[in-house]
Each structure stands twice: as structure tokens, then as C-alpha cells.
Amino acid sequence: MNCLQPEPGDWASYLQRFREGKVTFGSWYDHVTGWWEKSQTSPNLLYLHYEDLAEDIDRELERLCSFLDVCPTEEERRRAKEGAKFDAMKDNVMTNGTLIKAMDPKISPFMRKGKVGDWKNHFTVSQNEQFDREYREKMANPVLRFRTEI
Fold first, then answer.
1. Most buried by CB count within 10 Å: which residue of 41, 53, 108, 143?
2. Which structural domain range is residue 123 located in?
């Protein structure tokens, strides 16, 4: 997937490097907490979660419209909802990563299945327990929470 890291190795070794922040874009924990902290002081950032979109796209679209202070027509809302569907975004070069030179979709697409909870098909029980422990330690912010299921 990533030309800067063409040989990711097996899942277990990649997960270990990911947890340690030793992947191309650094620590996931630093990334998400950094943007969360910035969103708390910047009126120009809206933090959305994929699981929330999958659960209730109408609610999240309303949040987005409120944030942008826009009042779209029903047709515009319908088109936005269609365009925000996973399959539509996966086929859209503006959202699927194919325009990013460092990515190689022939190796592995940036967007995979779009299924909430698909991580369960990859993590072992032990890997999940370890990730949960690290998550609790590194994501101590009581407000910022990620869901892994709907």
C-alpha cells in the first residue's frame, strides 16, 4: 500500500511497529490526540468518527451542516449521503488515495472493506488485549473515545 514502506511484513510484526509508532506516518496515538486537542481550540475543525457515520449518517450530516452553517436542500442532502457511502468513496479518486504518489493500490488499497468491527478478523485475542491496555494508557483523555462496534 505504502511505497515508503513496501514490505510491511506479516500482520503481527506490522502491528508491533504500528503500536510503537514506527510506521511511515508515526504514532497513531499522537496523530489522533493532536488533532483532537487542536479541535478543542479551533472553531474550524470538526471531529467525525466513521462508526458514527455508519450508525446514523443523517445525524452526522446534520452536525456537519450545523458546523458549516449551511442549509442544503433535500436533493443536496441525498447527494451528500450517496457520496459519503463507503463504496462511492472507494471508487472516488479524490478520496481513495490513488492520487497520492506514495500509495500503491495494486499492493493494497488504502480503503479496504468499510465494515465496522472488521478488526476482529485480524486481531488475535492477545493482540486485542494488548492494544486495549495501551489504548487506556495512551488515550487518557476521558472525552475522546473511539468505538470499535455499533
1. 53
2. 1-41+115-150
- Asked if residue 29 lies in contact with residue 139, where contact means CB atoms within 8 angstroms, the answer is yes
- Give the rounded distance of the alpha carbon of 24 from its chain centre: 16
E strands in the chain: none
In a domain, 27, yes or no: yes
Local structure of 4: helix, strand or coil: coil
Closest CA to 87 of 132, 54, 120, 62: 54
Number of domains in the chain: 1
Residue 16 lies in a domain: yes
**H/E stretch holding 119:** none
65 belongs to a structural domain: no
Q: Are 103 and 84 in contact (CB under 8 A)?
A: no
**What average pLDDT does this structure show over 58-71?**
97
